[in-house]
Amino acid sequence: MCVLSSTVKEVGGRLMRQALRTLTIWSFLWFTALLGAFPAGAQETEAGQEAVEVENDDLINSVVDEMIAADDLEILLVPLTSEELSEVAGNWQSYVRSRLEEVAQLNLQLRSASGAREDTLRSQLASLNNSGSDVLNNYRLVLEAWALKGAKAEDLEPHTDYILALKTGALKTTDLQTLFQNAWSWLFSWDGGVGLLIAGMGVLLAVWAMMFVARMVRRVTERGLNKIPTISRMLKRFIATTVYWAVFVLGILVVLALFGVNVTPLFAVLGGLSFILGFALQETLGNLASGLMIMVLKPFDTGDYIQVGGSSGFVDEMSVVSTKIRTFDNQIIIVPNSKIWGDVITNVSASEERRVDLVFGIAYSDNAAQAIEVLKDLVACHQLCLKTPEPEIFVGELGDNSVNIFCRPWSKSDDYWTVYWDLTGQAKERFDTEGISIPFPQRDVHIIPVEGAKS
């Protein structure tokens, strides 16, 4: 039993020592591998940086390639930083200078050349001008990209001044024949006059298309608004007109942007103008606000007969600034909307039915009941007088010179004046036939003699 126990202990100790030895070996190997990983990682990082630097060098080399096309240059300029664009701008400036130097040498040779030699030099000069214009255009593209990346004004100024100076200098130093040839070649080139003509025709076509689209949108808007009976005709017209101009202006801005025009400054200009006009046109803006309130709340609409601001007539037309009123004698009155909104508005045409108020005076010696029966008969026989509401005819006032009989029939608002004038004329004729007199104002003057006065 003791031998067995000692044997077990001996085997267990041997296994324990073997396990510790294995663990130590594996720990040493793992630590060695870990130490070797750091240099490998550093080497990979350095290799990655070198690859990025090589890639950046390739990009810069492509951008400063003198033969690069303008479309390709615009694409390659996008990832460059402001500092890199500064260096690229310097390279392109040197290209422009080199081309101008060649042009200057040819111009000097042209002064003393003649015959075939002159023709050859002019041909070389034309070719050099064409290639030089491409280089100058790429130079401008670099400056535009640099400006968009936040270039300082003092950094851009030397380049812009250089371009302006070289244009002025080239114009002064080039002879008239060369200038004429350049102008003639530009006029018939795709990049010059022909391209400009096509661009102009494209702009005109785009403007016409935008007008067509704006009209279509306005018609759709009008159809949608006509389905809403609670909106006034003036508000419908205003909304449709606003939609038309909004679509047209936005379309023109999109067209200009497609043609390469930078429209961002236009928004800044519009913002500044709106701020200035807000102070300069306060009264006009007040009329605008009043016009919008009238259109939304619609106290009247076009075609209504109104009394406002000391004027009365039919509403002929209304804008956001003023309202045009046409009187019965065809006079046109323009009333500012602020004056209308700030005054009492009487809309005679607001209701479909209207009461016609007539007053007939008869003599005190005449029979009032007979006159009332005559008026009732006239009202009952008139086709434009409504049966409901029933007319009211009664003795309303005992005046100084007559007994006043009030006649109040109802009619459609559009028939008001027709009923008024018809009943007035018919009542005069019937009163004459029935022997009912219409008195006129009169005064009795009594002369009282004074005693002792000379006759």
Describe the structure.
The chain has 455 residues and is α+β, with helices and mostly antiparallel strands. The chain folds into five domains: 59 residues; 114 residues; 86 residues, Helix Hairpins, CATH 1.10.287; 48 residues, SH3 type barrels, CATH 2.30.30; 82 residues, Alpha-Beta Plaits (2-Layer Sandwich). It is built from 13 helices and ten strands. A five-stranded antiparallel sheet has the order 4-3-2-1-5. Strands 7-9-8 form a three-stranded antiparallel sheet, covered by helices on one side. A two-stranded antiparallel ribbon has the order 6-10. Helix 3 runs antiparallel to helix 4, helix 3 runs parallel beside helix 5 and helix 12 packs across helix 13.
